[in-house]
Design brief:
Length: 333
């Protein structure tokens, strides 16, 4: 039986339906809740968020259910009780993350945390629950700190994530695909097969030319085209934006090279950003309103679209623990 952890309980992968693999209910830097300009009442946050999730649920109806993977992680505004309430109200499955967006967004409390401590923390959140919420995390977030280079804490977080993934079976997704060699080395050293890792933001405007796509593909990792919709054509685009056609053609190149099994797509939108204005006009629903029509116009068929948003995602999110008895590939064999 397949199992996926959502904030309202563990379900079968067959129940996920259409999956947006990297999204945010609300992401903010640690401490944003202390800024009085950006302090939103719970009512204001609900008002901004519920219609977007309801529309997501409606848009996903042809595929059955709707699943929103919340990529915020520890320290950046993760709020499990709030996610539970949103999921209950809107009928959208929400998968929460353990882990950190990057070492540089971890609070000072975690600065000196050891790999063993971090592994225990991640495994606890996936197998026992997050705080007193009763909800279990379904995926592990890791990332590269600002500066496009992995720092010491980033590396400890990646190693702990690899160990926690082997123990709990939860997959890993990364913030950024740059400086990937240390990550690939860590996953190899820890015996975690790279198809359990989604290297994210491979499509963003600032990472182009800095990603070793060949090394990632050769490792068997999954590649995330997960910033769809941050288009430079928007009235006020963010610094990581990219021309819509350029991103689309990049994605199509992977599809036409027969890499569909290795790629995943999402929008990385915020329903209600925390402590920053967000990007106006960008929501998870871009996937239905722009991306899928763009793919269809390029001759991409329903089977490929189902693979991207239903089958790849279900396979990736399914908990797959590796026991020590599981034979591991060994160098030289
Ligand atoms: Zn994100």
């Amino acid at each position: 039986m397949t199992r996926v952890n959502t904030v309202l309980g563990t379900i079968s992968a067959a129940e996920l339906g259409f999956v947006a693999i990297h999204e945010h209910i609300g992401y903010g830097m640690p401490g944003c809740e202390l800024d009085s300009r950006w302090w939103k009442t719970p009512e204001a946050r609900y008002e901004e968020t519920v219609p977007k999730l309801r529309l997501f649920r409606e848009n996903a109806r042809p595929w059955g259910a709707a699943t929103f993977v919340e990529a915020t992680g520890i320290c950046n505004g993760r709020d499990i009780d709030y996610y539970k309430s949103l999921s209950d109200k809107t009928g959208v499955h929400i998968v929460a993350s353990t882990g950190f967006v990057g070492g540089d967004t971890a609070l000072p409390f975690f600065e000196q945390a050891s790999v063993e401590y971090l592994t225990d923390q991640f495994v606890h959140e996936i197998t026992v629950g997050i705080g007193k919420s009763g909800a279990k995390a379904g995926i592990i977030k890791v990332g590269v700190s600002r500066g496009f280079k992995m720092k010491a804490l980033d590396k400890r977080i990646y190693r702990a994530a690899a160990r926690a993934s082997r123990i709990s079976g939860a997959p890993i997704f990364t913030h950024l695909s740059v400086d990937s060699q240390p990550a690939l080395d860590i996953f190899a050293e820890e015996g975690l097969p790279c198809h359990r890792v989604l290297f994210g933001h491979a499509d963003d405007g600032v990472s182009q030319g800095k990603i070793n796509e060949q090394a990632l593909l050769a490792s068997g990792a999954r590649i995330g085209f997960d910033t769809f919709g941050y288009d430079l054509e928007l009235p006020d685009p963010p610094f990581w934006g990219r021309h819509r056609q350029e991103r689309l053609q990049h994605f199509l190149r992977f599809l036409r090279e027969g890499r569909v099994h290795q790629i995943l797509a999402s929008a990385d939108a915020n329903c209600s950003p925390l402590g920053w204005p967000g990007v106006k006009g960008h929501t998870v629903n871009y996937l239905f309103e722009q991306l899928i029509p763009d793919l269809q116009a390029e001759g991409i068929g329903a089977e490929t679209i189902d693979k991207l948003f239903i089958r790849n995602t279900a396979e990736f999110l399914t908990l797959q623990p590796f026991s020590d008895a599981t034979p591991q590939p060994h160098p030289g064999v």
